[in-house]
Amino acid sequence: MDHFSHKHPLILNEDYIASAGCIMKATTVKHRWDPHPLHLIYDPEMVMNDHEHGFHCEFCPDELDTKFWFYHCDDCDLQFHLRCYDKSCYLNYSHIKFGATNIIMDKHHNHNLTFVLNKKFRHCGNCHLKNLGKPVLECAPCKTIFCEFCWED
To answer: DC1 domain spans which residues (predicted)?
Structure first.
């Protein structure tokens, strides 16, 4: 089997069936957070040599390891892990970019809020639900978070 990401013929081995999904990824995709196409980076040589800083995922926002495949826009310096690109396109809040600021929620809080992925063990300041690993609105001065059920309330 031939594949654009490798110059030698490939043999599909039963032990590696789970990783075969990467082979099926599109080489160019669109995302609503970027007006330009995102390109699949599958070789560290494809990364710009003059890139001044590390690559951070726009969705999670963990650092990307350029030895592993990811999507990238050279124009905007925007990138996603493959799994994060898929998640960011299909979740209910995919039209909002993490890090969006000055969000106002008059009912529950009087400070401006920021849309973040909650990476700490914290409870919603309104309903007290656990929100680890979920999108929340966060108040920087108060360190209070609000879950998606309360911001839609």
So the answer is: 34-84
Q: Which residues pair with 3 in a beta bridge?
A: 6
Query: Which amino acid makes up residue 94?
Result: S
Q: How far apart are CA 22 and CA 44, in angstroms?
A: 16
3 state SS for the chain: CCECCECCCCCCCHHHHHHHHHHHCCCEEEECCEEEEEEEECCHHHCCCCCCCCCECCCCCCECCCCCCEEEECCCCEEEEHHHHHHHHHCCCCCCCCCCCCECCCCCCCCCEEEEECCCCCEECCCCCECCCCEEEECCCCCCEEEHHHHCC
